[in-house]
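Objective 1.3, modelling of assemblies. Example input:
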Amino acid sequence: MKNKIKIFRAMHNLTQEHLAQAIGVNRQTILAIEKEKYIPSLDLAFRISRYFGVNIEEIFIFDEKTPVLVPS
Amino acid sequence: MKKNTFYLIGGSIALALLVVFWYSVELHNPLFIEIAFIAGIALAYLARRKVTGIINDERDVKIGEQAMMRTMQVFWVVFCAFSIGAVMQILYVPTFPRPPAGSPPPILLGSRMIGYIQLGLLCLMIFLYVGFRIYYARKYGDFETDEE
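Predicted structure (tokens):
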């Protein structure tokens, strides 16, 4: 799961610390998400996107290479 | 409560437990240390809930969960295997080939040694948990350096 948090942060002139405080997580969590070491829960992903006032798909990009099981 | 206050309380509880342990040994009564240990841990949990300024977010919870799950997966097998052996020895389960009639059953480990080893295994579990916690913290980006 790729994301554009860093870009959005830069656009809004926000530090990781500020963003973390605003959405109620640790700064290390924001760093881990930006570095794609941690995939946030749907709840946290929505909170991040709502904070920037955009849709979730604009920040988080689903990796199409990941196999998806389609129900038959 | 600040984080440092909590650490001071934790240290005080540990010291108090050491004193009770010594007292318990002197009196040959394990009940004191058993009750004190449970009370001490309960007190530590209560104090932990009063600490402010710690954000325990979903990533921390996930790291804790994964570390504990892996620890239990390893620990219960080792602990159970040892305990089964100990119980077999305590219950004098017959061995094969059977010892000659009238001879005492072979004792590999005394009851005291079994207790020591079980306590040692429990201590080992703490190290195992810390090891897994470091592993998962690293996996989920705890030691990543900042580019800001």
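The mean pLDDT of chain B is 87.
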